[in-house]
Write a structure and sequence with these properties.
The chain is of the alpha/beta class. About 25% of the residues lie in helices and about 25% in strands. The protein contains nine helices and 15 strands. Strands 3, 4, 5, 6, 7, 14 and 15 form a seven-stranded mixed beta sheet that branches. The structure holds NADP nicotinamide-adenine-dinucleotide phosphate.
Length: about 325
């Protein structure tokens, strides 16, 4: 099969199209013919081995152990192992295959059935491939860490990227009043997917305008933790999802110290893929409550260009790779 392979860490130019062995199928696995995949910040971290400690966490000290990247997948089931119960050949599926051996920037993947869900018929393969990682992160950040409730004032910082565009729509699906923070260029898009208010970060600092929020999801952005704390209501919750390495450490180390047992909470989300949440998101897609925002689609052979674009530009929503 054709796959995008990398044998050393580096910039997107180290990715190249190669003919490799089609993955084997064991009794517990589903063989998926990949129709589309999408790029996540995690793929870029694994491509560049940045931050450095990634190399010490099983990804490979001097070179990548897994030579095919790609976590989000959508495609058609080609074959199933003997013990697979939920799927059959011909089913259209999508899922998050992080850590399962196969990467999705390839023509086929073999994965356990628990990583997959049936694709709703109202979304394309490209749209479905944009969903799993970013939407699950947004869902778990808002619902599990942020305890989002109807009527609450929720602010999404970094609202125009992969995680942010899902976070706007999922918070709306939970009945919250949503304020999106993004650049001038993306304000109209944020409104079009449901944001009640939009703040242009190049013109206004939401941590200094005197407004307070019950829940802030930091999908991206550059504010220090103390500024986020200032923008919370007395019982508000701040959830860190993404940003600069310094913000990760601040949130992990200082967050618990700044949290009050009976008041504000400063916490973070680390996405954990599970089929229950994928099915929850699947229902939101099927009901039309969530619609993926796609910046652009690149053919498999142009994956390096897609990574350059993802790294250097500010993608609006997701960058997708069309494999078929
Ligand atoms: N915790 C987890 O489990 C988990 C899972 C997935 C991803 N992440 C992390 O989440 C972060 C975002 O991921 P993503 O896929 O959404 O990335 P992305 O698509 O690259 O999102 C970047 C977005 O951030 C916005 N942005 C840039 N500077 C900003 C600023 N100063 N203020 C507000 N927004 C700003 C950009 O908006 P404009 O274009 O409008 O400037 C851009 O649309 C990454 O750091 C990633 O590593 C974490």
């Amino acid at each position: 099969m054709k796959a995008i392979v990398y044998t050393k860490y580096g910039p997107p130019d180290v990715l190249h199209l190669e003919e490799v062995k089609k993955p084997a199928l064991n009794e517990e696995q589903v063989l998926v013919k990949v129709h589309a995949a999408s790029i996540n910040a995690g793929d870029l971290h694994m491509l560049t081995a940045d931050p450095f400690p990634l190399r010490l966490t099983g990804f490979g000290l001097f070179k990548p152990k897994n030579t095919i990247l790609g976590t989000d997948v959508a495609g058609l089931v080609e074959a199933v192992g003997r013990n697979v119960k939920q799927f059959q050949p011909g089913d259209a599926v999508f899922g998050d295959i992080f850590g399962l051996g196969s990467g999705s920037f390839a023509e086929y993947v073999s994965v356990p059935e628990s990583a997959l869900a049936l694709k709703p018929s109202n979304v394309s393969f490209e749209e479905a491939a944009a969903v799993p990682v970013a939407a699950t992160t947004a869902l778990q950040g808002l619902r599990d860490k942020g305890n989002v409730q109807p009527g609450q004032k929720v602010l999404i910082n970094g609202a125009s990227g992969g995680v942010g565009t899902f976070a706007i729509q999922i918070a709306k699906a939970f009945g919250a009043e949503v304020t999106a923070v993004c650049s001038t260029w993306n304000m109209e898009m944020a409104r079009s997917i449901g944001a009640d208010y939009v703040i242009d970060y190049s013109k206004e600092d939401f941590t200094k305008n005197g407004r307070h929020y019950d829940l802030i999801l930091a999908a991206n952005g550059y504010q220090p933790l103390s500024a986020y704390e200032r923008a919370l209501t007395p019982h508000g919750i701040y959830v860190f999802s993404g940003g600069l390495p310094a913000q990760i450490f601040q949130s992990l180390l200082l967050g618990p110290l700044m949290s009050k047992s009976d008041g504000r909470k400063m916490t973070s989300v680390m996405k954990k893929a599970n089929q229950k949440d994928l099915l929850f998101i699947r229902d939101l897609l099927a009901e039309g409550k969530v619609k993926p925002v796609i910046d652009g689609c690149y053919p498999l052979s142009k994956t390096p260009e897609a990574f350059w674009y993802f790294e250097k530009e500010h993608p609006r929503g997701k960058v997708v790779i069309s494999v078929v």
